[in-house]
Amino acid sequence: MYRKSAISHKQFRLTIAKQLVGGYSMRSHRARQKEITELDRTLAQHHTRSVFPDRPRACRLCSKHKLKTRAGRAKEQEMVVLSARSISIKTVSGSTMRMYAALQQRTNSVSMVQPKPKAATQKYLFPHHSQDSLSYALMLSTVWQEAIVSATLITATVSSLCSAWSVETLGRRLTVLLSGAFVAVAGVITGFAPTKEMLLLGRLVSGLAFGLASVAGPIYVAETSPTSLRGWLVSINQVMICLGILVSSLMAGALSHIGGPQWRYMVGVSAFPGALQVIGLLFMPESPRWLASKGRLEEARAVLGRLRKAGDDLEAEMKDIIMATKRGNDQAKGGLQNLVMVTRTPHIRKALVLGSGLLFFQQFCGIDTVVFYSGFLFKVAGFPVSTAVWLVSVPNLINFLFSFLGLAAVERMGRRPVLMLSSALAALGLAMLAGGFQLISQTHAELNSSIIERNWTGQIVTECATKYTSCQACVEDNSCGFCYTDVSDGSCLPSAGETHSLVGRCNESSSTELEFKWTEDYCPSRQAWVALLGMAVFVAAFGPGLGPMPWTINSEIYPYWVRGVCSSITLCVAWGATIVVAFTFLTLAETIAIPGTFWMFCGTTLLGLVFTAVLLPETRGLSLEQVEQLFKTPGQRQGEGHSVTVIDIKQTNQPPPAKSLAA
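Structure for Proton myo-inositol cotransporter, as requested:
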């Protein structure tokens, strides 16, 4: 009907618009529906021939103007983002960096009072709208979209369990090196994936890498670090994660302004840090504790000499390592028997409950959903989409900067007080965030009935304009949007896409000195600053404590011989909690509304604070062998020749003299 060669893009768009508007006023309801269906089919065929980036003669104009019918817009609402790609990078100092790269998320509208399935928000990660989307490029169905999103999380959970064998058999260093190789391979596969099957394969490989790195990385850093710097070096892991998130958000903003298959650049770039990790680890030594456990004592002593400064008592540390590994080798049974021993050994079981609980509450404070929501909050506050693309980096920047406070405090204040203070302030930020969303739902913009909208022929626009009486009802209709200069003078108009209305004040051809704003999926509110402030407080509180401390503590509280097994179990808990939060958030938002969801996160954060206060001892200033004694009873310590001075650590938050725990 409308062939690309027979009609220009501008004429094509204008013809579609006129027939749609004219059809509403001149034809019966059944005839209008039939015509709309035919136009939807025609437009879909036009896009099939023209806008896919991987095909020649790509149509940039249709993508630029976001020309969509109701069917096209409904299809766009089912687009999903590839979940954040974690890329572990081991630097020369042995710290871990995880770089996150992401694509756009589907553009659903938001119901603040009573969210509906098709109206619930999914403004995750970056609110930019790439004209060359992954879903359109590879023709992904809903099932395939869900499979690609969940593939990494599922395989990461499985590989975190398998890494218990890897870190004990292959070694800490080689396991981390393998994770870097998997990341590089996954980046190449996903970046050049010609089909959805290859894309899924790349996601599965990347999940294997993340599971291995999340277990082996902290263990490797903890076992090679001196006691005085162990907490600082393990905490660098979280700082590098924050840096990776910040860099990837800036990258997403930059790539949103260029042409071409943007998603390929975003996922393909992960191959470079993966390769860098492999190269860097070729020059790194193996963990001296792992070498000692394998009977390679001279190698362990040589590595320890490389890792310690002049003047350190290497022989005393080596003696502690040999005694600990000998005791561990006597207790270790290997394979599944080690797992049975974990459940039957009281002090290990206590440490495992503590480590798993800390990572559980870290995920259930809702950090991912809060950061993912930042783009939506900036838009509700009145910032245009083009600006929100960059402002979404603000919470990532806050998280990165405040994570340095954790580095400064971890060896000065200790793990326990930093984590407790962070949890308390994070709960305060979540309460402000929940209250802010509640205010937004009660004070968002309303329609001004005195405003009369007209089309290009001067006729009064009745479609959408007279159908709804509130902004919320307007944006919940996929065919309508909200046009405004201020929250008090809005009007509901037929939508022509994400950037402008089909007719009326917000049509791109309208000439006016006023700056009109257009939205399809949210209602602006003057109270959005409360939620923005709460988000800033929460992210700032998370950075120094809730972010790095659970990882730091988990890397040091387990005995050598079950460190790999226990770390695998706790990481499985962490990945599982991440999956639960990610896949239940929309259901919670629909059931108890968005404010209620963040109130729930506030409650779980307070529970985590109580959990920390009751169970967590201070580990600052203690060697890994000394930390093990904290979870034993006084009778066990006396039987092994250890002092009972450690009982007071939890109350004083001061490290005991080193000799008080020495055998």
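The first helix runs from residue 9 to 26.
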